[in-house]
Amino acid sequence: MRAVLFTMLLTLVACSSSSSGGSNVGAWEGNWTAGGTQSTTCGGATATTQLNGTVVISAGSASGSIVISAAGCDLTYTVSGSTGTLTSGQMCTVTTSSGNATVTLTQGTATLNGSTITGTEAGSATNTCSFNQQFTLTKM
Predict the structure, then answer these.
(1) In sequence order, what are the beta bridge partners of 41?
(2) In this predicted model, what pLDDT tens digit does every residue of 23-51 receive, in sequence order?
(3) Which of 31, 8, 4 is nearest to 87 (CA)?
(4) 44: burial class by Cβ within 10 Å (0-12, 13-18, 19+)?
(5) Number of other CB atoms surrounding residue 107 within 10 Å
(6) DSSP notation for 41-85
(7) Which residue did the predictor score with more confidence, 130 or 98?
(8) Of 17, 20, 38, 42, which has the fewest Cβ atoms less than 10 A away?
(9) Rounded CA gap, 90 and 88, in Å?
């Protein structure tokens, strides 16, 4: 589940250092401490775990985008000012209550407020599990 958090968090904060489109990618870049929860629902069972660890956010290859990297997963977000939106359809391998699964992320948002990023991510896994994260990142 830690891998899922890192993956999602990485996706949320991914952006480029370009200033086009009103994005301020530089404010998002850096090392962040992660916290929050991850819930997976498989069949009729829901498991919730705490998120923690370090997330690295860097400029993406496209203007106005960032890449959030954690636990071997890199996710791209489009940034406009203090809001980041996950590029839907990205996949990462995560740990769920049923074991490892490939998750396709369908939605994600992140909000930058000073030295804090808050956000959510959701998706579905190849093992029929659903995935949700609520996270807070604090700049190191």
Answers:
(1) 46, 130
(2) 789 999 999 999 999 888 887 888 888 98
(3) 8
(4) exposed
(5) 12
(6) EETTEEEEEEEEEEEEEEE-SSTTEEEEEETTEEEEEEEEBTEEE
(7) 130
(8) 20
(9) 6
Q: Which two tokens stand for residue 27?
A: 């404010």
Tokens standing for 60?
């993406």
Domain boundaries, the chain: 2-139
3-state secondary structure of 12: helix
Q: Which residue has the higher pLDDT, 19 or 4?
A: 4
Amino acid at 10: L
Class of domain 2-139: mainly beta
Segment 10-29 shows an average pLDDT of 56
**Which tens digits make up the pLDDT trace of 47-97?**
888 989 999 999 999 999 999 998 888 999 999 999 999 999 999 887 765
Q: Which two tokens stand for residue 134?
A: 């609520």
User: Are 104 and 86 spatial neighbours (Cβ–Cβ below 8 Å)?
Assistant: no
Structure tokens at 48: 């919730």
